[in-house]
């Protein structure tokens, strides 16, 4: 209530406004999913139902929060990128993180029965932690996204080989771990191919590349605009008028949210969708 003697407690709150004009990444991660996988019998190394559930929740988050320009998900984590001009909650970190994580969690629980119709949820329910990090340049942001996708690749190659040794090679976890100790990527590819006739390249894209969530907007033909290397040299993208920016923003917010399993390390993905980072 206004002006009560208790109101001074408000002054204990710490400001947590994020740096202006920076790309805000909110990354959430499933709490204790190693245990949760075992409890609900997730297929190893990749349970498709669980990945689809993550993607459905991410799509819903992006539909509810149009300030998010792109999301990237792998395993039990999702990164959401808020545009550098975002002013939602005055860019307060706790509000952005809490809203993103609780919206995601709510949809994860909501869609669970769709993805796991025969597996009822029970306490403790799935939950997620979250954090916000600011990236000042497009290069830093792209390096962040590349970092997550490289992580996806490295972990998936390891996990796929590890579980092949167990499921098809009859090893136990200790033996499989030992067999993989000190191996490089090429060795893991070789183990799978020579012993099990599995070509890692033929594994599903969703497992190898993770999931990118973005709005379906007109694609730009490669070469029809400034190339990425040149764009990197420009301190700022070409300025648009305020009304043009508003119109574009509305169109983008209305566009359908898509999930795909694409390479986000190379330039092509970004070159064809310059609006993502402008
Ligand atoms: P923390 O609470 O610290 O995050 P955690 O047990 O969730 O603990 P992570 O490092 O996040 O630890 O690991 C997530 C675990 O869940 C990994 O073992 C990963 O293989 C597993 N996992 C996540 N998604 C799937 C999936 N779709 N199919 C199979 N396993 C999955
Ligand atoms: P914000 O997103 O900024 O929090 P808000 O609309 O949620 O916006 P609050 O200040 O949190 O704003 O106010 C919550 C509103 O919900 C109040 O109007 C409050 O009276 C109403 N409300 C909350 N719980 C109940 C309830 N159990 N029964 C009736 N009204 C409720
Ligand atoms: Mg964690
Ligand atoms: Mg986790
Ligand atoms: Mg994780
Ligand atoms: Mg409220």
TrEMBL record:
Enzyme Commission number(s) from the entry: 2.7.7.79
Comment on bound cofactor: Binds 2 magnesium ions per subunit.
Entry keywords, A to Z: GTP-binding, Magnesium, Metal-binding, Nucleotide-binding, Nucleotidyltransferase, Transferase, tRNA processing
Keyword tRNA-binding: no
Enzymatic class: transferase
All residue ranges annotated as the tRNAHis guanylyltransferase catalytic domain in the record: 6-136
Superkingdom: Eukaryota
Domain called Thg1 C-terminal: residue spans: 139-266
Co-factor requirement: Mg(2+)
Residues involved in GTP binding: 75-76
Binding, Mg(2+) 2: 29, 76
Family: Belongs to the tRNA(His) guanylyltransferase family.
The protein's name in its UniProt record: tRNA(His) guanylyltransferase
């Amino acid at each position: 209530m206004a002006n009560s003697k208790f109101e001074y407690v408000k002054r204990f709150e710490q400001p947590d406004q994020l740096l202006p004009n920076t790309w805000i990444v909110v990354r959430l991660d499933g709490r204790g999913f190693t245990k949760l996988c075992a409890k609900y019998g997730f297929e190893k190394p990749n349970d498709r139902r669980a990945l689809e559930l993550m993607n459905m929740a991410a799509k819903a988050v992006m539909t509810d929060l149009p300030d998010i320009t792109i999301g990237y998900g792998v395993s039990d984590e999702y990164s959401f990128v808020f545009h550098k001009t975002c002013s939602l909650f005055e860019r307060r970190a706790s509000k952005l993180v809490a809203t993103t994580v609780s919206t995601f969690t709510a949809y994860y629980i909501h869609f669970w029965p769709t993805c796991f119709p025969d597996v009822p949820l029970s306490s403790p329910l799935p939950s997620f932690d979250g954090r916000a990090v600011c990236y000042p340049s497009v290069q830093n942001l792209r390096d962040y996204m590349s970092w997550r996708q490289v992580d996806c690749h490295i972990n998936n190659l390891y996990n796929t080989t590890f579980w092949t040794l167990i499921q098809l090679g009859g090893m136990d976890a200790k033996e499989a771990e030992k067999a993989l100790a000190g191996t490089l990527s090429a060795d893991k590819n070789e183990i799978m191919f020579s012993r099990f006739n599995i070509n890692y390249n033929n594994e599903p894209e969703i497992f190898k590349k993770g999931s990118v969530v973005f709005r379906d907007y007109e694609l730009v033909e490669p070469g029809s605009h400034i190339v990425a290397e040149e764009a990197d040299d420009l301190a700022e993208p070409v300025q648009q008028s305020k009304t043009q920016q508003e119109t574009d923003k509305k169109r983008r917010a209305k566009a359908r949210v898509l999930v795909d399993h694409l390479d986000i390390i190379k330039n092509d993905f970004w070159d064809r969708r310059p609006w993502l980072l402008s």
